[in-house]
Write a structure and sequence with these properties.
By secondary structure, this protein is an alpha+beta fold. 44% of the residues lie in helices and 19% in strands. It contains 16 helices and 12 strands. A 7-stranded mixed β-sheet has the order 1-2-3-7-4-6-5, with helices on both faces. It has a 5-stranded mixed β-sheet with strand order 8-12-9-11-10. Strand 10 and strand 11 form a beta hairpin. The protein is globular, with a radius of gyration of 23 Å.
Length: 427
């Protein structure tokens, strides 16, 4: 392709940076007939710096599939349907991804569509207005789901006053007030060759993918984008939406670690032991032994500069106190006593199996490859991941439990009670 291309062959991937700054990263799976392609834009909810931009990243995700000056929304969908391709997009607080999974023989067609909608979106006024209502309906749908509301409340508590606090969907008012100029201004500021990574995984040849991308994206310009990074140290707080629901939805947690923290390997093992799977401590104690909930699990939120840990439980409102006391007892127990050898090995075995299963799917591999490249995370081979997992000791797990679980607590909740009913569990 000439000396103007910078190609770095990896252990299991190949990476080429085009002269305009756009990165192309691929992984070959010769045993499949499909290719998963993801166009990753280095922008998300945290980058909506202006009041009139709240929800712009997600709104753009919808609008770009409306096509370009050369392609209508109908032509985009019909082209993908005609080749049996799957296509969609998703927005997070830190990134936006437009993806398709299709037959290896149709990769060029996939790039034809993606290159048009990402580089030359039409932003037709009538389509903006119709999609505006679709996004509002999506907000309405989420607001009707108490589980989603509880998670949003927890995120608000964990990242209050931080760029990560804003909801991905925006608000009804922000979406209704967003003009065509607002949307175009955000796209122009955040989308460009230097801020995009194209990841492809499947039955492919790296040089062929680079050639296709160069042909379609090579004339695009735009520099890399920046982000406002800062730590967050949330105080103990309760974010509650009072509703007369049949089930209370409670998330209790605290300040966590950012995504590059080397303690994450020990925390992932801890998270598995505490609340992942039917043999986890929380599942066993809250559901199996006491019948207090159908769903209970642990989770982690990890971003470039901040993070949070948490436990979710859905329980009858009258049993909320009991469920929260059991959860607190289990958190205290692992801080005081640590974990057993059998728990440690069972967690590692389960995580090894989960990693192996995820490697069978080209789309999950594409997500890992594109997300890590966009975020500047190291690309670790399967063996390297297993080495880090195997190196975690019981002492590592107990230490990270003490560091995470001893911090001030946060609660996000939906249910028929008052904030004062939950405050004892965050102090």
């Amino acid at each position: 392709m000439g000396t103007s291309f910078r190609t770095l062959p990896g252990v299991y991937y190949d990476l080429t940076t085009l002269p305009n700054g756009l990165r192309v990263i691929t992984e070959t799976m010769p045993s499949v007939r499909s290719v998963s392609i993801g166009c990753w834009a280095d922008t998300g909810t945290r980058d909506e710096n202006l009041d009139h931009e709240h929800g712009a990243s997600h709104f753009l995700e919808h609008l770009l599939f409306k096509g370009s000056d050369e392609l209508s929304a109908r032509e985009v969908s019909e082209t993908f349907d005609a080749i049996g391709a799957e296509s969609n997009a998703f927005t997070s607080k830190e990134a936006t991804c437009y993806w398709t999974r299709l037959l290896d023989q149709d990769v060029a067609t996939g790039f034809d569509i993606l290159s048009e909608i990402i580089q030359r979106p039409a932003f037709r006024a009538n389509e903006i207005d119709s999609e505006r209502q679709v996004v509002i309906e999506e907000i309405n749908m989420n607001d009707d789901d108490p589980n989603d509301v509880a998670f949003e409340n927890f995120s608000t508590a964990a990242f209050k006053g931080h760029p990560l606090e804003a909801p991905v969907l925006g608000t009804r008012d922000s979406i209704r007030g967003m003009t065509r100029d607002d949307i175009m201004g955000y796209w122009d500021r955040r989308y460009g060759a230097g801020s995009v990574v194209i990841a492809a995984v499947g039955n492919l040849v790296h040089e062929d993918i680079v050639g296709m991308v160069s042909e379609r994206f090579g004339d695009w310009d735009g520099d890399a984008v920046t982000h406002e990074h800062s730590e967050v140290d949330p105080p103990a707080r309760v974010e509650l939406t009072r509703r007369d629901t049949e089930q209370a939805h409670i998330l209790i947690g605290g300040k966590g670690m950012n995504r590059s923290d080397e303690r994450r390997w020990a925390y992932q093992v801890l998270n598995h032991i505490m609340g992942s799977g039917m043999s986890s401590r929380l599942f066993r104690e809250v559901r199996e032994e006491r019948g207090l909930a159908y769903s209970v699990y642990a989770f982690r939120l990890a971003y470039a500069d901040a993070g949070a840990w948490g436990v979710y439980v859905g329980t009858t409102p009258s049993q909320t106190d009991t469920a929260l006391k059991v959860i607190q007892d289990e958190l205290n127990k692992v801080m005081d006593e640590g974990v057993t050898d059998s728990e440690l090995e069972r967690a590692k075995g389960s995580m090894r199996g989960g990693l192996a299963l995820s490697l069978e799917d080209s789309n999950s591999r594409m997500v890992r490859l594109g997300r890590d490249e966009l975020a500047g995370m190291p690309h670790l081979s399967t063996d390297e991941r297993l080495e880090r997992l195997d190196a975690v000791s019981r002492e590592d797990v107990q230490k990270v439990a003490q560091e995470m679980y001893s911090a001030e607590r946060l609660i996000g909740a939906v249910g028929p009670f008052d904030t004062t009913d939950l405050e004892p569990y965050v102090t």
